[in-house]
Design goal:
Blueprint (H helix, E strand, L loop, with lengths): L13 E6 L2 E8 L6 E5 L10 H7 L4 E5 L24 H14 L6 E7 H10 L6 E9 L12 H7 L2 H10 L1 H9 L7 H8 L9 H8 L10 H10 L8 E8 L5 H10 L4 E9 L2 H4 L1 H14 L3
Parallel strand pairs: 3-4, 3-5, 5-6, 6-7, 7-8
Antiparallel strand pairs: 1-2, 2-4
């Protein structure tokens, strides 16, 4: 399989069969004996979001960066019961896939958890299995707890999560990925960078996960992902003794000040860098500042 060329992404992704007939794409960059940094993206991005950080760390750190199933360069299976293979697009599936990747790579020791967007729920959900493995935290515009009480669920997400018309537009027109690439930053992204974020989701089949992620957002007690997210919320203060750095774009209409306040409360010792001139894709708006800052943080706090 020939890997397409993307700007600022000089990597050769690897693939492995995470489930029968379903391949996951991932980056494994840096020395095999380096301290491991596991970077988990959200929706509707992919490992491309972490590219600047990988480039800034891979000389010393082992950077493991998966594309979740249905995202980026990973396979994009259907979820119909009759599909072969079929994939259940749930938070639990994502957690299981991350665990399978680490086992595939023989990584069973401590690591640094870096998260963005849904990557927070996935990463902290995975960490419930063995919290002691997480030695450091790198947090950007994400969550590890349910929607804060004072935060209204954005109408634009409601249109995708609960509306058949909105769901159809997301899959038919790649609406969510295109909107995020256009409005998820304060700085205007170059056309080829926007295309890197969106092109992997063009077409009905390719856009399936951008919708299923949205439909899996837990808002009510009976929602499938709610129990996991509530368990992550309860466990989050237990990481207060770990070194943590937070890089946050305040111009994020979803993961806004309410979510940042949640992390500040749970992790009062975290090093926080909040930017009034950055949006949801914080590492796009502020990578020139955040990448050396994160590297310095890792060097000051060795595992």
């Amino acid at each position: 399989m020939t890997t397409p060329s993307f700007p600022d992404y000089p990597f050769t992704p690897r693939r492995f069969e995470v489930r029968p007939g379903i391949a996951m794409s991932y980056l494994d960059e840096g020395p095999r004996d380096g301290e491991v940094v596991l970077m988990l993206h959200g929706n509707p991005s992919w490992s491309y979001y972490w590219r600047h950080l990988v480039l800034g760390l891979r000389d010393r750190y082992r950077c493991i960066v998966p594309d979740h199933v249905g995202m980026g360069l990973s396979d994009k299976p259907d979820d119909a019961a009759t599909a072969q293979p079929s994939y259940d697009y749930t938070l639990q599936s994502r957690i299981d896939d991350v665990d399978a990747l680490l086992r595939h790579l023989g990584i069973s020791g401590p690591l640094t958890l870096a998260v963005h967007d849904w990557g927070g729920m996935i990463g902290f959900g995975w960490a419930l299995r063995d919290p002691e493995r997480v030695r450091r935290l790198v947090i950007t515009n994400t969550a590890a707890f349910p929607l804060p009480r004072r935060k209204r669920f954005p109408l634009r997400l409601t249109m995708g999560r609960d509306s058949k018309v909105g769901g159809w537009l997301i899959r038919r027109c790649n609406l969510f990925a295109r909107g995020a690439a256009r409005f998820g930053t304060v700085r205007r992204l170059p056309k080829d960078v926007r295309q890197a974020y969106t092109g992997v989701y063009d077409g009905w089949t390719n856009a399936i996960s951008t919708l299923r992620f949205m439909q899996d957002i837990p808002l009510q007690p009976g929602d499938r992902a709610m129990a996991l997210v509530e368990a992550s919320a309860q466990a989050l203060p237990g990481y207060a003794d770990r070194p943590a750095v937070i890089g946050w774009g305040l111009r994020d209409f979803v993961f806004d000040q309410h979510f940042l306040d949640g992390f500040r409360a749970a992790l009062p010792n975290a090093q926080v860098h909040a930017y009034a001139d950055a949006g949801h894709y914080a590492l796009e708006d502020k990578h020139e500042e955040l990448v050396p800052l994160i590297r310095a943080f890792l060097e000051r706090n060795p595992e």
